[in-house]
């Protein structure tokens, strides 16, 4: 509506070509049209304005006023777009929070003693198919614990002593009765 007003002010304030008139016509569909030609047939002339001389100072003032209104409209539209973007962003965030409530993240993984325990727990959870398949694969990767037997009550033997340190070279022992050379 404001844009139409700005256009009307601009059209009315600007000088028309010599000998021209401005016609305001109500069309058959109810809309109003401003033109510099007589109204088409099937419409009524609401107002015909003869060409008027507009002083230069008034024309400049009207142009400044049109520019001020245009600037005002652009600022209001920018504010409206920013508000709409903020509302859309808030709506997406609320939707995401709602989805998180409906489909909460699975509980943190437990440490299972066997794959069967893990699969039993996963079978009781309400999960999407892809999440269920991923968790079942994790369950299958659990290694079955190996039983380790540790003797109880048996004293352990102390470790054997290290071999003696030999710093001097030993003389060769020759067999008895062998001739010496």
Please describe the structure with a list of short key phrases separated by commas or semicolons.
181 residues, mainly alpha, 3-stranded antiparallel beta sheet, 3 strands, 45% helix, 8% strand, rod-shaped
Architecture overview:
The protein is mainly α and 181 residues long. Among the domains are: 2-85, no CATH class; 106-144, no CATH class. The protein has helices spanning 2-13, 56-102, 115-124, 129-140, and strands at 22-26, 32-35, 44-49. It has a 3-stranded antiparallel beta sheet with strand order 2-1-3, with no helix packed on it.
Provide the fold topology.
Elements: H1 2-13, E1 22-26, E2 32-35, E3 44-49, H2 56-102, H3 115-124, H4 129-140
Antiparallel strand pairs: 1-2, 1-3
Helix pairs in contact: 1-2, 3-4
The count of β-strands is: 3
SSE class: mainly alpha
Sheet with most strands: 3 strands, antiparallel
Number of helices: 4
Averaged pLDDT, please?
75
Stretches with pLDDT under 50, minimum 5 residues: none
- Mass-distribution shape: rod-shaped
Task: Give the SSE string.
Answer: HEEEHHH
Tell me the quaternary state.
single chain
Strand order of the largest sheet: 2-1-3
Helix proportion: 40-55%
Estimated radius of gyration: 49 Å
Q: What share of the residues does DSSP label as strand, in percent? A: 5-15%
Cα-to-Cα separation, first versus last residue: 132 Å
